[in-house]
Amino acid sequence: MFPLRILQRDVKSEVEQIAGILDPGTVTGTPAYLPALTARGFEVEPTGPVDAMVMMAEIGALISNDTIRAALTAAHRRIRPGGMLVFDVLDGESVLTASLPLRGLVEEASLLCGHSSDVRTDEQVYELDLRTWRLMGDQVVSQSAETRLIRYFLPRELRLLLSVCGFTQLGAEPFTDPALAWFRLVWASRT
Question: SS3 of 137, please?
């Protein structure tokens, strides 16, 4: 796996924020977390309906409307009527109005990370080119490069996709962690 700094940080604030949405008084069962949903081609057979499903870093990795609808439809099959779907998306309004630098460098004790990015409005994706170098003293012991495409969503479009797939959006809010300023936590009820 690519050694990203963000993967090594404390995610307690995101977990607490999600827990606040999935109020224990309204969710009577165990939430399902299916990160392999996309990897399995959305052919996940439910073992029974669940009260809630959390899909983090899933929807944005799907670029086409067809694959996004397939993922939401698979979630719809798994969640009981009235159940909750919670997920994160890259917020289009934040991406399109950002004044943040499109290049950067982060240095930690033994890891150097560099990135450049581009907003591709014709495809509605944020392209992120990442490079890392793992250091031991003044020697580079390993390096890697990766390009990620992340789909961004405008609010109206997201509500429409959810509606077409049998969900009603109940809310969306920014994450409390400033490092995730461009992302929104979204929750929807299965109709």
Answer: coil
